[in-house]
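Handout, section B. The chain below has 413 residues.
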Amino acid sequence: MDNNKSRFPLWLLCLILFIVLVAAAIHLISAGVNSIPQEPAAAPGEPSSSEMVVPDDAFPLPEETVPADMLTPEGTEADMIMQGDAADDMNTWTVTAEEAAAALDELESSLNAVSEGLHVHHFVNGVCDSCGAKPVFYTDLVPEELLQPATQEGSVSLHEYTVTNYGNRGVGEVEKCFNVYVPWGYDGSQKYPVLILMHGANDDYDSWLLEEHEYGSGTLSGKALLDRMIELGYCRPCIVVSPAFETRTIQGITAAVYQMRDELREYILPWLTEHYSTYAENNSLEAVAAARDWFALGGLSDGALFVYEGGMRYNFDLFGNYVAFSGNGEPWKTVSAIQSDEWAELPIQCLFTGAGGDTDIQQHYTEIGYDYFIENDSRFRAEENAWHVDVTGGHVWKVWLTGLCNALPLLFP
């Protein structure tokens, strides 16, 4: 949790900067007051110091006091805080342009020191390219601060559609849907990375984002975790999509894989990139492929099997990031597919896997899959762009939510 101490919420940064500026202003005022003797009450008809003319461009930064009558001819009108007859009888001080610039530089350095480290880590070869930090992983619960309600909440919308029944050899149509999460402050003029998450058997399109799952002494949803991680700077703002994977009309993992592998290419990605602002320049598959480092595919259990079987094996050109929890497929077939002449030169941005320990029925198979990629394809480099991190708990949502927290900071360039 140490590397996350450098991440401050936006309101705290603003408060710190405000305090620094107020302190600087108090210093200026107090120094000026101490250097100018108190003025006796002005006689009727005489100007008081509050009436004296101060040029707009003369905001003094006190360095030292100098009697007004000792000012040299080199001093300019802008150097003097007091002008007119009243200055003849009072002490004042001057500041040159060079001294003002030096004082401002010192203040800027102080502000930079306060804000140093306030960034979302960008990991390259296993270390943050801004501060040198290494990723920190949680093997039980996420930090307590991530379990608090976010003050800046994103939104989730449901999209329903009719699509070809690819799981039935393209015969007929099926009703499908997916949820789309956008972060707080979503701006269509900005570009956002995309993470698509597949649920497992006995779950549905609400499970990743909206459903409350047992977590520690309470409950936690994926949306609440995303909101808080983005708000506190644990990860960059992103769009998250959770499709209906296995449904009543598409039963069985084989049919579900066949359906979704084509549905991703033919409907979900084109629709998503047309209606949301992503790194794809348009909604064509060519544009998605050109921006594949900004697209991630993840899943749990049967959804993790899809990540390998339907994602890497058939859609490797569209995704540069992969997240697989408590599941595996046939890694030797997947590695063979991504080493084809067409895809052999495509890089891997990130692979993240994990399971729930000895009580997870998929623990052993998840480890086998990860090890096979590391040992048989040099594009997967352990602890540089590929990680396997287990979370205690078994084959349960607590494991996968913590795993999502571990994986998100590593995704995307």
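Note. Residues 2-115 form one domain. Compare this with the example in section A.
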